[in-house]
Amino acid sequence: MRSSKLEDLVHRHKEIARQEKEKTGRPVFGTLCSYVPVEILHAFDILPVRLWGDGKNHERADALLPTYICPPARNIMAMGLAGHYDFLDGVIHSYTCDATCGLFNIWCRNLKPAFSFLLSPPYMNTDEAVAYCIAEFKALIAALEDYTGKQYSAERLQKSIDLYDSAREHIGAIYQANRNGATVRYLDLHQMNLALQVLPIERVVPFYDAYLSNLRMSPGKGAKHRIMISGSVVSDPDILARIEALGGDIVADDTCLGYRLVQQRVPPHEDPLSALARYYLDRPPCSSRADFPARKDYIRETISAFDVNAVIFMHQKFCEPHLADHPFLKNVLAEKGIPQVQLELEGEGLSGQIQTRLEGFFEMLEAG
Amino acid sequence: MEEKKTRKRLQANTALRQIIVDFYAEGHRAKAEGRPVIWIPPMNGLIELFYAMGITPVFPENWAPLCAAIGTNRKNFEYAAKRGFSGDLCGYFRNNVGYALDGINEENQPLNGLPAPDFLISFGAGCIPTMKAFQVMCDHFKVPVFKADLPQVAMEKIEKRHIAYGVAQIKRLIRFLEDETGLKFDIDKLRQAVIHTNEACRLWDEIMALRSTVPSPFSAAEIGIMFVMVTRHGTEIAVNFLKDVLREVNEKVARGEGVIPHEKIRLFWDNIPLWYNMQLFNYFEKWDAVVVAETYTSAWSLRLNPDEPLESIAYKSLVSYPLVSCVSLNKRIELITRAVRDYKIDGAILHSNRSCRPISMGQMDIGRVLADELSVPSVMFDGDHMDSEKFSMAQFQTRVDALMEMILEKKRAS
Ligand code: SF4
Ligand code: SF4
Questions:
Q1: Structure pTM?
Q2: Nearest Cα to B173, choosing from B304, B46, B48?
């Protein structure tokens, strides 16, 4: 894989954060969902690292979390308890689902980070909601000023926004190239999406740049099944690889990491904080923050923009937001005559059951 | 044997039954007379607003326990499953969605079922299952929908900006309701409703405080009185009913009459009861034990300010979900710690509720605080507040019996 170097960095992201902290003295903060405004942390010279599990080995979490919590949340807790994140100075969450909120509070009680903050963003995107969101961001800024002893600076925030925007722009362009038949592998995109969440932003943009300039058109691609994956957080690259091996070309996604996060830029505005609030509220919302009309719009638009002809739902066991959306989205797809399958991820990666379901699905696509 | 039985339940139960029947009948009457009916999410602070405007509120969430008690929940679960909803979703969600989409067309529903809504609230607030259940209903019933927005903030972190945003949303809701119904909002009526709620909360606290008496005048089996706190806030019905309850409980305390004859063990209950098996609370009697406090019933210790009615209901809406859930875990632990001391608790029963992640997350922390800081033993059992198939009586009995032995042993030793 051409981005294997990046994959390696992603794999070592905790070690990299630890080294960065030792070398530069930068504080490192864990983030729990993609709604944490990492640009603000970056502007305070804090390194944001998304807490990220590999979906496996969560028994250790039994001491703090019930077994009927989704595998990713249990896995993150297990890693926290095993000391994998002992280098963190703080933890920030921006409210999304019940499981993550519980995880955040239980983490804070038990692992006692020096800094913790729960942002409560609005669900709407009106002027009132933006004003309220700015007030939430300002409360975070005040807490960060207190913690770091540094002053907030609009210019620094603008610089951080530009940096993140440039990363988003690159990844967005790779999605578009993939859409148009370039030699992109979704596994690479997955690593790039993840890199954006777990690595120092300065280090990732050059990879995206190099990847983009190396792209060629891939004439054979048009014949493949154009797949969209939809659902919870997906942390099992083996499953993605299996989909590709079976002849699926994943061109679009509606998951926790992915196109939703990179398709827009922070709009130009004289006040970067307002612009940032707009950006977070304008983005196509995740299931936990969306209502059905918003979900429907996103699915329909993405399917037609990426010419998708089959959908694979990937649901983490016990993931209520996505399980609740599923029948509704199934109906939306059925109306359009798009075939679909649901995989339930139980924290075991590419299990035999998942393999069988995938094989059956692709046989059906071939036959159809 | 006879001696062991629970003494007569509160007489107020007779009145309560009538209040429940009347509440549901009122919804049907409103519907029949062409007055507006709105389905609203649980425990929110807006009920005062609806009563003040003459709009009849219906609570699917409150109706679910009735379905569980009567047994129609199973049919509703089936309907939800047929529509493709996973069995791992909260039982309230499965019951309410199954009922709203299909069960509603069936005859012979408890209390004649729910009158169909004329408006709905699409909900950005509370827990995921409630939020999504309302989204399913909004998609299904083709009625005007108000998009609500109420961010989840830990109770101890609520600031002016949160209340101000809540007030802005309530003003938007008032405009929506006025436009849709032609009814006029009157702030003085809202003020009056807030006064009633405030009084109901005050009475509630007084009643609950009496349970700290040894022996306790009533047990968790009487939790049904909470019905008025959910559905009749903002009205005199709640106030008058609670005054009667207070009088009755006071008399019991004055007579030194406990709910069981020889109270030996006082218990705390965390998480929602098993609505299909309320007799479970009587199981403790074989050990001369009684549940004298719960997390659930502590959620009403609020005071509202009638001089600021909009701010008051915004605040009430903001705290209603965080207070009992993992959003305010620290606050919840504080509340339990206080209850354990005030109610002289000997042991705690933690219901690990498969349906409700937000209330069940943090229970291990609660157990640890009980043991380490309060020297109160506790036991956790697996259950579900709506689905009897996810509860095992055998496991419950084994665990509870072990806890009781331990408490008695401890008592003998001291
Ligand atoms: S969205 Fe689903 S998978 Fe993600 S943390 Fe929440 S419950 Fe778990
Ligand atoms: S029982 Fe729990 S998960 Fe279910 S609706 Fe209530 S708070 Fe939400």
A1: 0.96
A2: B46
